[in-house]
Amino acid sequence: FDVPWWMLSESTTMAPATPEPIASTKGRQIPIVCPGHTRPLAELQFRSVHENDEKRTFLVSACHDKMPMLRDAATGDWIGTFAGHKGAVWSCRLDPAALLAGTASGDFSVKVWDAITGSSLYSFPHKHVVKTLDWSHDSKRLATGGHEGILRVYDVSKPKEKPLEFVQSTSKTISIPKCNWLDNRTVLAAGSDGTIRFWNVDEPDPSRQLTRTLRVGDGVRDMELLALSSDPTRTILTVAAGDRVTFFDMTTGEEMRSYKMPIHFREEGGASLHPSGKKFIAGGSDLWVRVFDFETGEELECHKGHHGPVRCLRYHPDGKSYATGSEDGTIRLWKTDP
After folding, report:
1. Which of 142, 277, 326, 338 is the most exposed place for a label (fewest CB within 10 A)?
2. pLDDT digits (tens, 9 = 90+) for 91-138
């Protein structure tokens, strides 16, 4: 029988069949399908802004087809494409005001775009594949990371200045698959060695720049910071690594929960916490999107819709829906409570 193309390798052997997951009867739904991309998705991000006293939410997607896209998060309708990269785009994020977009690419560059017009403003060259970027909360700085194992911080108001650099390890190269700003001076850099490093990027003394580390068992595939809707002063870090999803309280640095998943994140996938903090979604090595209870880890829902492994997913900021991106080149929008 035919083997899906994403499961083929040079040494493919047929493994024993594994039981097919049982689709949810509770909350069964048909998601909105957002076509447009032609290769596997790499990252999704929602961004809400206020326009004329109304809140509007956008969805940006990074994809291996080199063409990151901007959409209306409610309908999935295409708004625009940021065209200009010559390699796969691994990360695409809007700044907090949704006026600027940043993209990180396999063409060894990071680009900054005007999110309104789609025009390219700056390009920051790197020496290897760039896997991740994130905007500071005040939109003034951009952090980047990738296969070089160097966290870089650019001042976008001074694009010709050299960036600040923070090497993850002096003994070996530790790739950075994800980075996130915790506040306007602290950047979290997730490592391929399973360590999340907290860098104070305003500290001039190199011996004091690394302020904290958190460990998970395997190389980090996905990392999300979320301020809870019930208590915005409380921020939760969600980490997908190996075959586990782990949650940390950023106030204390303590691990809150860690659950073994029926999938793994060694090659793709991720997890996202609902804004209420009561449940989370995860997807990775198979075609299914799963919803879990935060307190117990119990699987609440299991949905099939994609025709390839799930590579990225995120909850909408209002918690009423979530988006998934797949190896099949599509984005699907699901209702949280159908």
Report:
1. 338
2. 999 999 999 999 999 999 999 999 999 999 999 999 999 999 999 999
The contacts of residue 2 (CB under 8 Å, 6+ apart) are none
- How many CA atoms are closer than 13 Å to the CA of 336, on its beta-carbon side? 21
CA distance 190 to 223: 7
Encode pLDDT of 237-289 as tens digits.
999 999 999 999 999 999 999 999 999 999 899 999 999 999 999 999 999 99
Burial class (CB in 10 A: 0-12, 13-18, 19+), 74: middle
Nearest to 324 by CA among 338, 94, 104, 309: 309
Structure tokens, 284: 């990775």
Q: Tell me the pairing of strands 220-227 and 235-241.
A: antiparallel
What's the full length of the chain, in residues? 338
**Per-residue model confidence as pLDDT tens digits over 55-95:** 999 999 999 999 999 999 999 999 999 999 999 999 999 99
User: How many Cα atoms within 13 Å fall on the side-chain side of residue 319?
Assistant: 13
Under 8 Å CB-to-CB from 78, ≥6 apart: which residues? 34, 36, 69, 70, 71
Contact 47, 98 (CB under 8 A): yes
Cβ–Cβ under 8 Å, residues 103 and 144: no
The model's pTM: 0.91
